[in-house]
Automatic annotation (TrEMBL):
InterPro entries: Dimeric_a/b-barrel (IPR011008), YCII (IPR005545). Residues 9-101 form the YCII-related domain. The lineage of its organism: Bacteria, Pseudomonadati, Pseudomonadota, Alphaproteobacteria, Hyphomicrobiales. PANTHER family: BLL7171 PROTEIN, BLL7171 PROTEIN-RELATED. This is YCII-related domain-containing protein. It comes from the Bacteria. Belongs to the YciI family. Coiled coil: none annotated.
Length: 113
């Protein structure tokens, strides 16, 4: 069965302590329970803010340069994600819709190769 990434996006200034209330936590927990019951959830994870990232880049001389911060400079970043196993894109999008509502944030659904 195909696998899909369902990614939650947050603005760079996102503060979970100020944004995520008990109702949101409950909705995300319910969604996770529903995904497990449906047998679609492979993995789920929340990510630290993008400024906690370390970026690595191979240089032409063979050295690998490590820098503090995200590789891409954007106004939004991935805040968390699910890896789901779904019958098709339509099913993955249905889970993505539920994720957008539960997380109160934009969601990206992308198939794996």
């Amino acid at each position: 069965m195909p696998q899909y990434l369902v990614a939650i996006h947050h603005p760079d200034e996102y503060d979970p302590a100020a944004t995520e209330d008990a109702a949101m936590t409950r909705d995300i927990d319910r969604l996770n329970d529903e995904m497990v019951a449906a047998g679609v959830r492979i993995f789920v994870g929340g990510l630290q803010p993008a400024d906690r990232a370390m970026s690595l880049k191979a240089e032409p001389d063979g050295e690998v340069r490590v820098t503090q911060g995200p590789y891409l400079k954007t106004r939004e970043h991935m805040g968390g994600f699910w890896v789901l196993e779904a019958a098709d894109l339509d099913e993955a999008l249905a889970w993505g819709r539920k994720a957008a509502v539960a997380c109160r944030a934009p969601v990206e659904v992308r198939p794996f190769h």
